Amino acid sequence: MSEITVKELLEKDKKNIQIIDIRESYEYEAGHIDSINIPMSKILNSCDIISKEKQVIIYCQSGRRGASVVYMLQRKFKLNNVFNLQGGYSDYIEKI
Predict the structure, then answer these.
(1) pLDDT in tens, 32-87
(2) In Å, how far are 15, 25, 58, 88 from 55, measured between CA atoms?
(3) Is 63 left (phi over 0), alpha (psi -120 to 50) or beta?
(4) How is 4-67 classified by DSSP, letter by letter?
(5) pTM
(6) Among 72, 91, 80, 66, residue whose Cα is nearest residue 8
(7) Whose CA is closest to 87, among 1, 2, 3?
(8) CB 40 within 8 A of CB 70
C-alpha cells in the first residue's frame, strides 16, 4: 500500500503534489485540506482530472476509503503516483 503520513505531507512543496479529498461534498464543506473534492463514487470516472506527473495524495476522513481508492487506481489504471494519507483528515486536524 502506498501511504504518506501527515508529517510527510506537511513537508511537501505544494507545487509538486495534487491533493484529492474523496469525501462527500458535505464533508468537504465542513472542512478540508487545500485540495480538490472528487467524491469516492465519482473518482474512477474522473481519471482525466488526476495528475499523471505530480505525486497525488488521496484522503478521506479516517484513511479507510482513501486506501481503497488508491488500491483501485493503482490496480485499474496503473497509477503509481497515488498515495493514501494515513489517518485521513482526522489525523491531519490533530497534527496541524
Answers:
(1) 999 999 999 999 999 999 999 999 999 999 999 999 999 999 999 999 999 999 99
(2) 10, 23, 10, 17
(3) left
(4) E-HHHHHHS-GGGEEEEE-S-HHHHHT---S-EE--HHHHTT-TTTS-SSSEEEEE-SSSHHHH
(5) 0.96
(6) 91
(7) 3
(8) no
